[in-house]
Every structure is written in C-alpha cells, then in structure tokens.
C-alpha cells in the first residue's frame, strides 16, 4: 500500500459546499428507474456512463472543465438517510416493495469508480469529462446531481477565462455578481469558478461558507462604497465650512506610523482641495466640487486610511469626484498613508480613465508626490467580453475591472449542454443513435489522450477502447474523426497525456494488487487546492495554440478516435439503425 | 391588540430555504460602509431604500414579482453569529475598532420596516417592489442579499408565466431543468418559482428540502424513464421469444383489483403486439418493433402498472416506440390498469404527436378500449416560448410539455436588473441623477396604488408622497409620467388597490397604538402558502389587459406619479444637477 493510497484511505471527505446537495437533488425518474431496475433484477448490472458536452459555449472553440471537486464530495458522501428513504417511498407513484427500500438504505458509491479530467483543464466536445462506472441503478441516481454540478461550474469558469483572455494578463479582474446571480448558489458557485477561470477577487464573502465548514476557498475580497453612501451625506451648504462641518464629528487621524496625530483632517483636506483647484497645469478644469461627496470621502478615509478607494461618479467625475478624491488622498499622504484609487461606474470609461490618469500624473509631478500617478482606476457598469474588447481597442487607463451580471449569469449563453450517456453495460458497448449526427454517442468504456506537437501546443485529443495500447511518443498514430469517414490524420506525438484519471476508485475496488487497502490498489488522484486548480487553468490556456482560443473566428480543435474505435462505432451503428422504408 | 398581530407576535419564523443565505451573503463593501457610517456616527440615521427594476425582461411589458418570502425570512432571522463577526473583523481592510464589533453583535432587523407588493403580483418598471426603512447601516447590509433573492426569483417566475401564456391554460407544464440550472440553488429556486408562474409540476425532489425543514412546498412530482433505461435492456435476438426471454425474470402481474394474477405478462404483451401489428385500419405502418425497447417497457410497466409512461423515441417513434407502448398498455388494460401515456424527446413533435394520437384513437375504436384515445402525450427537447408558439400555430396533440434549460436558466435573458436606491435619509428626500434618464431614481418615501377601470382591467400604477391623500374611487386624479412633462392623463378609478403592504413592521415599530404588543400596532401581512401565491399570480394575469401581456408588440403599461411628486422630483433634480460648462 503506497503512501498516497494510505493517506486517502483514512480520510473522511467533507460533503458538497452547499448542504442542499444531497442524493435527493435528482430527478424523480432516477428513482422510478432504480425501482424498475431492482424489480427486473438488473440494478447491479455494471454500467459505464460518460459525461460530456457537444458544443463549446459563447461561440468559442474551448471550454474549461470545473465542478469535479463538488462531484467527488457528493459521491464520497452518497448515502440516503432514513428520512430520505421514507420521502422517496412517499414520492414514488403507486406503492413499492419494502425490499427496494432496504436496498435504498444500503446503497452508497463504494462500488462506483470515477475517472475524470483534472479540474481546470481546457476541454473539448465529445471527450468525456467524467466516466462513471458502477451498478446501473446507483450510477443513474448520480446523473442529475453530477450534471448540475458540472454544467454551470464549467460554463462560468469558461466565461471567466474568456473575460481574462480579452482583458489581458496585466489587469485585475473582480467578480461583482452576487446581487444579479441566479440565486444564492449561482453566486457562491460563480465566485469560486470565476477565480479558477482567472479572476483575482470577489467583492463578497464567498469564503465565509468555507470558514464555517473549516475549509477555505481563500479568494481575496475587495470592497469600496456605493452611490448611496455618497448620497447619504447631506450638507447644509450654508453651514459646511472649515469651522463647522455638520456631518463629521470625529476629525482627528493618527499618522500611519503612529508618531503624530492630525487633529483636523477635514481642514487638511480642504487646504489640499484649494491647492489643486488652482493648479495651473490642470488648466482650471476643476469646478466647485460637491461637498456631500467630499464629506462622504472624508468619512470613508477616516474609517479606512490604508484602503481609501472612492467611487467618483455620483455627481461629475472630472469636475467633482476626482478632485475630491485627490484632496483626500493628498491629505492621507501627508500622514504617511497611501490611497488605493478610484472607481468609475458610469460614463465613457476609456475617456474618463485617461483623464483621471492625466490628473494623477500631473499631481505627482507638480506637487512632488511619488507614486500618485499610479493610483488604481477601477471600472464597472455592465461590463462584458465585448465592452472589455472595445475598451482595449480604444485605449484606456483602467487597472481593474469589476464584472457582474454578464459574468455570473453567463448572459451570452446561460447554459452548457452537458449530457450523461450509457456507453457500456455488462461489458457490452451501447450507442445512442439520433437523426442528428452530432447527438450520436461514442460507445465503449474509453481512454482519452491529449497529443502534443513539437511546439509544445496540444494537437489533438484521441479516444481509444479501454484495452487498446496507449499512443507512444515518437510513434505515428492515425486519428480519425468519429463520424466523418474522410477526416483523418496521422500524428507523431512529442508528448502524450492521459486525460482521464481515477478520482474515486470505489472503496471495494476491483484490483487485488493491494488487498489490505480499502482502496485496493487504485491510487486516487488528490483533489487539488483551489489556487492550484486556478494555476492549472491559466497554464492550460497558455499551452493552447492561440488560434483555438481567440475571440474572432477561432479554429476548432480536433477531437478524434482511434482506427479501431472508429470501426467499432460504425459496426454498432449499422447494427442498431433500422433500415428505413419509403412509402 | 388584534388577533392577527397577536398571532404573528409569538411566531418564530424559519430562516431562508437555503441555509447558505445568511447576513454574510452580501458584498464586502456593505460592511466597509457600515464601519464608515459607524465611525462617522451616522449608522442609526433613518434611511428609506426602494428596490425596483427599470425594464421588463424577455422583450415583454410585464414582470411577476417573487422572492418576498425568502427576503422576509432572511430579515426575520438577521443576526450575526460570533463566528461571523470575527470573520468580518478579519475581512475588513485594516483594523477596525472593538466598538464596531460590539455594534455588529447587537444589530438585527427589529428597527427595520419592510413594505412590499404581494408575491406573485404583476409588476412594472420603476414601482418599488420592496421599500425598506431603518438604520442606514443595517438596511445597507440587506441590499445585496435582498437583490439576490428577488432578482432571479422574479425573472424565472416571469419566464414561467410567459411559457404558461403561450402554451394555453389547458396544457400541463412540467419543469425539467435541474440538470442544466445555474447550480443547485438555481434549480431549487426555479422549481418553486416556475410553480408560482403557472407550471404544474417538477420532475425532481424540490420539496424534499422542505420536508427536511418541516415545511412543504408541495409541488407535484412527475417521473418516467430515460433513453439509458431503454438502452440498458439488451436482447439476444436469437433467444428472445415467448418461451425464454433473457431479461425479464419475474413475469407475473396481479390485476388492479387484486382479484387475479396474470402469470405471464410478457406473453400477454406479445399477443397484443401481434394483434395491433396486423390491424388493417393502421395500414400496416408498424414494422418489426425493437425488442430491447419492448423489454424495457414491460419491466417499467411491471414496476409501475398504475403509472406507465414510456419514452418512445429511443429507436423509431411510429414504427417501434408507439406500437410497443400500445401493446404494453393494452396488456395492462386487460388487468384493469390504465397506462398514463408516452413521452417524445426528439423529432417533429407536431407530426409525431398527431400520428400517435391517430393510432391511439384507432385502437380505442377498433379494439373497443374506452379512453385509449386520450393517452397523455408528453413532449420535451429544448422547448422554449418560441417552439411552444410554433407548435401551437402548426397544430399538435401534445397534452403536456417538459421544459428545462430555456426555462430555468432564463436563456432568453439571464438576469433582471433590480436596483436598490436610497430615496430618503433623516426625512430628507434623495435623488440619484444620471445622464441616462431611465436611471434617475424617484425620490421620497412613497405610497403606490394600482388604479382599475370599468372593464376590471388595471389602467395605471401611481406613486405618491407618503402623506398625500389616497386616490379615491370615482374621483378624478392626474397621473403624470415621472420624467416626461407632456405625458399625463386624468383617471377616474373604479377601484383603487394599495400595492405596498407591511410585511415586516419591525419588532419595536414606531406606532404607539398597541404599546404592549411586540409589533406595536402595525398589522403584518401573512406570508401566504405557495399554492395561494400561484393562484394570485394566475388571477393577476387574467386581470391584465391582453395587449399588455401578449408576446408580439405588447403595449407598455403606464406607470405614473402624482402631480405633487412630479413637481418635487423636478425641483430636486434642478437643485442637484450641476450646471454644465461648455469649453
């Protein structure tokens, strides 16, 4: 028994992040079928199902696979409670036999094997993301929850990766979608999967749920303030002056190093404001700034002198928001603090960010404040792939984008169509035919490989029968389109990567290599930390040939089958398809 | 203290359905703002926020409001745990004062008042769905979770209502979306809200979560079987005959009334199959049927003789699936059972359903089986509003539609843009201006009314200041467009309905009418049962003038403000908007 297997053997795995993900998060028909299988004495027949999708989302030619960890956590904890069994009993149409309920009480996934592609891997249509093998009735019960856990996870991760590709690697990307997400879990999942797809932070408490559960997502959090915060500061103009501001009661601020205290931070801000309002190099563009806004900024800075990030578009960005921000930031600078920057949430983001940047540079130069030009400019306001692309083409000075609705709801395409198809039962391959050739399933328990060329890019994915020899580095192999006779190519791979790895060997296993181990010899892949999944995803995208992942007219990546598998598919197809009769 | 208030007073309300909906399901900035408010001594200033949307979804002119019950459950249980407080402490940028943490430990919604439109009501842009009033810091903390709970709920309820309108009232509609929904909760929410919007059932265990929590959604469940169930039955053709079928071990079936037992149900099915294969009036359209499919149907019928619903398109609907179904259904009929019907999941649903119906009618007539013509035909396969509409125009014989992806992910428009705007603080009205006039907020704590005309249809919604007199039946009132000077109309309402009702009076309240009651005199509206919300929604749609809710070019419904409120909006607007300077 090797160290890895031993380590896994004793580990009790946590359940899915959302406690509502239980064996009952499934379609009723999975249980009606389980009963029919059981009645027919077929429930323990060994079945192999593939989970895959047929078309890449968002008009692209790639997808990022995600959701695996949640699936494995569901499978590891798959056990019906007595309450659930009695609920199933009540829900089945008609009455069912007590023997079936006893069967339900006993089932778990100890006899199920799960092979999967690593989470965060770039994947393509038709190649199984997960291969589940086990008693047909049990594996069928897993169909719906596993589809639910993979479909949105992969969709939103792909969406995040696409936003990252168009924004470029140097920009910060924040996920802002909680308020518009499709329910609480749409939001919780989105935060996790956007992070995997290359986002830098979320603005809400995604990781709380993991703190509570003793396991951290560890996604960075970011926060600023809203328009309402600014609007809530009302100023009696007749009364708001250096002597008697009406809102700010506590005006003192200790310097960053603790060595001194500024007793009247408000006055300090006002002195900076007059200074920059008359700065000649700014050409007098600053007008009378809005004093409620200034009061709001001062209050926020007094609360967060080390993290002052101001929303500057409540009134007028250039004439009020930016000068008010600069005055507060300069006052903070006097006390040894460094302001973070501004956020724009409306208007022409390219123009406004460039103007703001010019002002920051001018202040750095004219007033000799080092680093002032590098203030972070954050932009939000219904951003999506298209607007990011348009901004990049126009030129802008935004450092950091906050993206919400379009990201987390996958507005451009709200669903990924993963399917779960029976490919083998009792060692007999099964094919699902359809008049639409793109819907024909690829039969057999399969192995899947990614073949790499000499440039380091991946060239093609190939599926083979389970017992076919593995493609070898330097050896020529014929890769065939699964359904199109004429599409085929020889490949001499420089590197071969097996895609499907064992993430759940089943506690009983079927190998006898290590009979004393509860895992019986099958080494289970570790579920990596979130950060590692994210790194893997980013690395994967770098390994792709750029034309496969570009936004406009991307080249389809090739997915193939071995010559043997091709022949077998077409043998089965002819056998199963009825000969039509024209009348 | 009246009976209703007393009943509510002692009631401890359950928390939100999803246990992950806690006070931390919010944006970090709500807590950074709370700290800044607290530091500035402003946290207890009394603020009024409106939650509303700006544009109806799906190109329509109406929306159905949903999500209220979950909001009230959140608000009723809004209390930070010690663990949450320490997490907030760690998450705030920089350090915060201990006094703030003590403040966080104490806050709840006892000083918050929530007025809302009833769940399931047809609503329109700009009119507040919820009005939250309370200490500004607390109400800001509610912003994000309340938006999350209302946005998707209202969107998917509206989507369901639109599907119901196009399908017509006589059809059954099933929600099939669990596997493609945006996460587990996207599915759980969708089932509940599709039911409110007029769906009849879900095919999965939505209500389980409520059984567990001791409160039932009570949405009906439906189930059948999948293609994989059919494919899993393999037949050795050389061996499958009446004497030795290889799959079906237990062939006996007791009659419906328990009076007799058919020892060989398989043989009975085969005899019916030969009979209908040679039925002249069917013109010999039935070919050799697929025997694995037949074995699957027989097994399913033996398990569910009272609920036999067969998926008939695994091979060939008319040549195999329908005759196999009919043979099993006729055999069941011999034993006093009544089959439910068939499901079609591919192909030309209009044509196939019509053909299947003809066959059912022919069998009823020729073989004298009463009711056989009325077999339920269920259809699924990526259905949406458009395909339902196209089917209706072509003519079809489908009784029941299963709708999944397009329904639950709101594929046609994946987000509703509800916003949460400050309209008053310390009794001072606030307005949020924007260069885009559709984004200007309507200031003031308001009352909202729906005015009905003599036909019984609703004519217009009108918002007034809180202290303006209520519009009166039979009295002429001027309704003004909030932003467009020239758009105004006199209305003499036949009925006046106040839209915003008190769903959470705050435990301390502010009225002294019933000083001994914890609710202090404000009668809280009951949260109705799910079934009642659904009935309310259906009734609401009937009360709408048909041109407002039709699919093609619907007429916009009018939303107005009183003359007083109009004047006040424009007074504030001029006061707040900076006078531009052209350079």
Task: Write a structural description.
The structure is a homodimer of 583-residue chains. Chain A is an alpha/beta fold and 583 residues long. Chain A has 2 domains: 3-164 and 412-576, nicotinate phosphoribosyltransferase; 226-399, TIM Barrel (Alpha-Beta Barrel). Chain A has 18 helices and 22 strands. In chain A, the strands form 6 sheets. A 6-stranded antiparallel β-sheet of chain A has the order 15-14-1-5-3-21, covered by helices on one side. Chain A has a 6-stranded parallel β-sheet with strand order 7-6-13-12-11-10. In chain A, strands 20-16-17-22 form a 4-stranded mixed β-sheet. In chain A, 53% of the residues are buried. The interface between A and B is large, with 122 and 122 residues.
Task: For the structure shown, list the relevant keywords.
homodimer, 583 residues, alpha/beta, nicotinate phosphoribosyltransferase, TIM Barrel, disordered N terminus, Nic_PRibTrfase_pncB (chains A, B), N/Namide_PRibTrfase (chains A, B), nicotinate phosphoribosyltransferase activity (chains A, B)
Q: What name does the CATH topology of the largest domain in chain A carry?
A: nicotinate phosphoribosyltransferase
Q: How many strand units of chain A? A: 22
Biggest sheet of chain A, open or closed, and with what strands and sense?
Answer: 6 strands, antiparallel
- The mean pLDDT of chain A is 86
Q: Which structural class matches the secondary elements of chain A?
A: alpha/beta
**Assembly status:** homodimer
Can you name the CATH architecture of the largest domain in chain A? Answer: Alpha-Beta Barrel
Compute the gyration radius of chain A: what is it? 30 Å
Question: DSSP helix count of chain A?
Answer: 18
The percent range for strand residues of chain A is 15-25%
Low-confidence stretches of chain A: 1-11, 204-221, 236-245, 509-520
Euclidean distance between termini CA atoms of chain A: 66 Å
CATH homologous group name of the largest domain in chain A: nicotinate phosphoribosyltransferase
Shape of chain A: elongated
Q: What is the CATH class of the largest domain in chain A?
A: Alpha Beta
Of all chain pairs, the largest interface belongs to: A-B, 122 and 122 residues
The side-by-side strand order for the widest beta sheet of chain A comes to 15-14-1-5-3-21
Tally of distinct domains of chain A: 2
